[in-house]
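Supplementary Methods. Inverse-folding protocol.

Structures were first reduced to a discrete structure-token string of length 572. This string, shown here, constituted the complete conditioning input.
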């Protein structure tokens, strides 16, 4: 580790901190303010889009109506993206004449982009036409991100609305939240972002692929396409699906250290800002900063361990008796150790999944950090919206534990946490490990599962665990040694992604519906404050204990034992 490396990490976090309040305040104005920005310009567009949706901006929905609207919209999205892939060979904007995508892979990809996972079992430049990339994948990047914000807002309203004062038990309107998220937040930011990327050398064209002659006289094909427009929402919406197979390690997606820094910032920007938005909704910004602080503690712990591990020499190269400067295997020289390790930590803290280095080539402990980040529930800032509602479920659990310790009914923001909310919270927490460990165990014993592993022993187990963790956590990154483009993996991971998104959203919205109608009781001498350092420490402890203890046995057989074997000179 170097001083320069740590200064890069601190500079990144300082910029995230600087963006949190202004962007969070803007989001509060968009979704909770009486007047949205640029009413004369964007107001008519918003009203037109709402009329097309058949929605009334003044008519709010109950939690069940909100949930049904979200599920119906998402199911329709899966169908459209599936059709685009299956019919791309007869549709325009396919200059390379790419064939139709197979049914299992089309199902996997449609589910992946609808659930904001963006798991890719294909090479984008050799599989997807320009039309599929734009009308299917890029469009879905926008709406799946906006849908995540919708769920976070609904849960936040459940905790922060006061029926006694406001006389309402609704959670807002899904269609209004969706349209405003797209129109006032994601679209304008991405237009500016895409123009910046183009200025740095990211491609944006409809040109056919180019055949070039290298200095050695060989032929090389350079893929073209509308990259910058997809790259912007890929990062800002914590989607992660790359236009090219190499993702953000590709120089046409991420050409310079400056674009690398901006991409990192854009992953954390909205998830961090939503914590401040939540504090504004709660009428106590310290509530939001307490969540931000908990996320920050976990972020620094992860990046410190990963950076230390990757700064050590690679045991697999030690026998070659060559000089090493840390583990540069699988990393781009133009980014180096610190920026590559920071990217791996950030992209798995959030449910992004974009990569600028290959996680499969990390050391055992370096690869453990991205895997554990996902398995903690992606609450370390998390995905757009998903990070906020995920950590709020952990808040409910933490408040309940605090209530048990002091011997009184737990309260949060003046509302009592009762049996119904605890059952829903525990259901949310149990779904995640059930998907990962249950299907992981099945894949570990079936020939259809283990035949796709590129490595034996503990590293092979890590590849398998990472795949299901990434799918259930809607992350999308991978230990690339796994060949996931088989019927078994395409279907099983598609089902895991669906369950990891929607089976966890339903209890979240049910909690919101249960909490929104409760009366607010004044804080008393026995009320446990949830806006200070003590609660932040408790929240961090609960997240670590729930996540770490749940997955510790599996991790012990994977990256942990691999670390000790590598120290003994045994490399898989």
């Amino acid at each position: 580790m170097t001083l320069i490396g740590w200064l890069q990490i601190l500079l990144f976090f300082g910029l995230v901190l600087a963006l949190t309040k202004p962007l969070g305040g803007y989001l509060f104005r968009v979704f909770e303010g009486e007047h949205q920005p640029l009413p004369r310009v964007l107001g008519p567009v918003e009203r037109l889009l709402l009329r097309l949706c058949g929605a009334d901006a003044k008519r709010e929905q109950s939690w069940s109506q909100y949930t049904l609207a979200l599920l119906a919209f998402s199911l329709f999205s899966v169908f459209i993206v599936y059709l685009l892939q299956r019919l791309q060979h007869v549709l325009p904007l396919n200059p390379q004449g790419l064939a139709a995508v197979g049914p299992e892979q089309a199902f996997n990809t449609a589910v992946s982009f609808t659930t904001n996972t963006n798991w890719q079992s294909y090479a984008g430049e050799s599989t997807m036409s320009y039309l599929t990339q734009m009308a299917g994948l890029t469009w879905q990047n926008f709406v799946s991100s906006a849908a995540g914000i919708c769920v976070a807002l609904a849960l936040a309203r459940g905790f922060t609305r006061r029926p006694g004062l406001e006389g309402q038990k609704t959670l807002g309107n899904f269609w209004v939240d969706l349209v405003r998220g797209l129109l006032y937040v994601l679209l304008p930011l991405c237009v500016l972002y895409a123009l910046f990327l183009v200025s740095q050398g990211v491609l944006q064209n409809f040109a056919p692929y180019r055949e070039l002659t290298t200095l050695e006289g060989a032929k090389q094909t350079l893929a073209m396409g509308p990259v910058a427009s997809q790259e912007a929402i890929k990062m800002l919406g914590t989607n992660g699906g790359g236009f090219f197979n190499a993702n953000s390690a590709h120089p046409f997606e991420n050409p310079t250290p400056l674009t690398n820094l901006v991409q990192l910032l854009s992953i954390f920007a909205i998830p961090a800002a939503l914590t401040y938005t939540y504090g504004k909704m709660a009428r106590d910004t310290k509530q939001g900063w307490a969540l931000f602080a908990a996320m920050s503690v976990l972020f620094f712990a992860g990046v410190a361990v990963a950076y230390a591990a990757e700064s050590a020499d690679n045991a697999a190269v030690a026998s070659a008796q060559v000089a090493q400067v840390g583990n540069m295997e699988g990393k781009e020289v133009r980014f180096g150790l610190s920026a590559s390790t920071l990217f791996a930590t950030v992209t798995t803290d959030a449910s992004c999944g974009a990569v600028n280095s290959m996680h499969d080539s990390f050391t055992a402990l370096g690869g453990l950090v991205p895997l554990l980040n996902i398995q903690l529930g992606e609450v370390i800032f998390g995905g757009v919206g998903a990070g906020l509602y995920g950590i709020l479920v952990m808040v409910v659990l933490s408040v309940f534990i605090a209530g048990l310790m002091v011997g009184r009914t737990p309260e949060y923001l003046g509302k009592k946490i009762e049996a119904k909310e605890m059952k829903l919270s525990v259901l949310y927490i149990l779904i995640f490990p059930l998907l990962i460990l249950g299907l992981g165990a099945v894949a570990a014993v079936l020939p259809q599962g283990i035949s796709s592993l590129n490595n034996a022993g503990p590293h092979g187990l890590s590849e398998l665990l990472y795949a299901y963790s990434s799918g259930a956590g809607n992350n999308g990154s991978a230990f690339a040694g796994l060949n996931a483009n088989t019927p078994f993996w395409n279907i099983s991971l598609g089902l895991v992604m669906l369950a990891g998104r929607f089976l966890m959203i339903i209890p979240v919205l049910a909690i919101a519906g249960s909490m929104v109608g409760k009366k607010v009781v004044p804080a008393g001498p026995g009320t446990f404050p949830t806006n200070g350092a003590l609660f932040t420490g408790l929240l961090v402890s609960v997240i670590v204990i729930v996540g770490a203890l749940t997955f510790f046995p599996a991790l012990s057989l994977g990256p942990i034992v691999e670390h000790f074997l590598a120290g003994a000179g045994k490399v898989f």
